[in-house]
Amino acid sequence: MKALTRTLGFALTATATFVAFAAAATLALGSTSLSAGNAQVTSCGVSSLSSTRDVDNSGNVLQVNVSGIPATCAGETLSVTLVGSTGSSLGAVTTTVSGTTATLTGFGTVSAASLDSYAYAVTGA
Amino acid sequence: MKKLVLLLIATLAIGTGVGFAATLGIGSDHLWAGSQTLTKGTCTVTGATDTDVDEASKTTSFGSASTLALNPDTNSRRWAFLNFDLSSCSLPATAGADSATLSLYVVNAPKSSFTLTLAKVTSAWSSSLTWNGAQSLSYAGATSTATAGTSTGVWVDFTVTGDVDEFIKGATNNGWRIVETGSTSNATKDETDFSSSDSATNKPKLVINYEQ
Questions:
Q1: Environment class of residue B161 by beta-carbon count within 10 Å: exposed (0-12), middle (13-18) or buried (19+)?
Q2: Across the A/B interface, how many CB contacts are shorter than 8 Å?
Q3: Are B200 and B105 in contact (CB under 8 A)?
Q4: Would you say A18 and B12 are in contact if contact means Cβ atoms under 8 Å apart?
Q5: Contact A76/A122 with Cβ under 8 angstroms?
Q6: Which of B9, B68, B96, B138 has the greatest number of CB atoms lying within 10 Å of its CB?
């Protein structure tokens, strides 16, 4: 029983450690750098991104036009998610950055009226 | 039991790591994530620069008339033109239309239903436009259609979301032309009239639901 208690204690500690690392990664989203363990993750220089969207006459999103991408992010991966009022994803598209702006298509049929925010992620090697 | 607990640990740890990595790209050297929240609003523009032109009176301007007439009859066709000034909405070029509806109030209904087709005008015009002048304008393809039934005192709505979205973003706004496309019968001698911006009440209106 004593051994089992020790094992369970170890289990909880280890789990908490993993969760802590993951939580740290989550909390550092607004930062310009992020570290977990021995590795450090930095941004390619993005501080904010801005988008507009074009619609068809039915009010559905045709494309999303992203601006404000630093030139230093060329070759990295940009993901844009259209987010609805409940925080749910209405559609997402990923592209490789090749300039300071990006035009993304292929979100499916998404009504602009239901779009409440854009969520961005820029990742790269 | 010990093995079972260790298996539980491994499962939790791997599951947690993979979940966040998939979202955030933890495995990458570069990582940034952020968001942009949109603000929604509504703007109604009442009244426009508007007129109609008459094939039977090719050099006459009807810019100060209180009605906009539409007629499909051969040699007596009448077309309506409207251009709403969106500046009162004070929308930046980064905004966009979620939906936009142009509404006209019927003061004289046709004897039979009219199919009305609305299209962007792509060259400049003024309220002194005549039939002859309208022939030298250029027009885009149809934006939308609407039906004018046989009832007077009702609003007829055209969906113009795509066009208004472009105007907000800076495209030149020369407004729209509306024509009757469902009939060309010379025998019909039919016409429908809408309140114009020179009418005291029920002026043409454009309702824009926007985001910025």
A1: buried
A2: 148
A3: no
A4: yes
A5: yes
A6: B68
Task: Indicate the CATH number of B40-211 among 3.40.1350, 2.60.120, 2.30.30, 1.10.530.
Answer: 2.60.120
> Out of A43, A58, A119, whose CB is closest to B30?
A43
List all residues of chain B from 12 to 31 with a beta carbon under 8 Å from chain A. 12-13, 16-17, 19-20, 23-26, 28-31
Which residues in chain A touch residue B33, judged by CB atoms under 8 angstroms apart? 29, 119-122
Give per-residue pLDDT as tens, B24-61. Answer: 545 567 789 999 999 999 999 999 999 999 999 999 99
By the 10 Å C-beta count (0-12 exposed, 13-18 middle, 19+ buried), A108 is classed as exposed
pTM, 2 dp: 0.80
- CA proximity to A54, closest of B121, B163, B83: B163
Interchain pair A120, B32: CB under 8 A = yes
**HSE-up (13 A, CA, CB side) for residue B189:** 1
- Chain A positions touching B163 (Cβ under 8 A) are 57
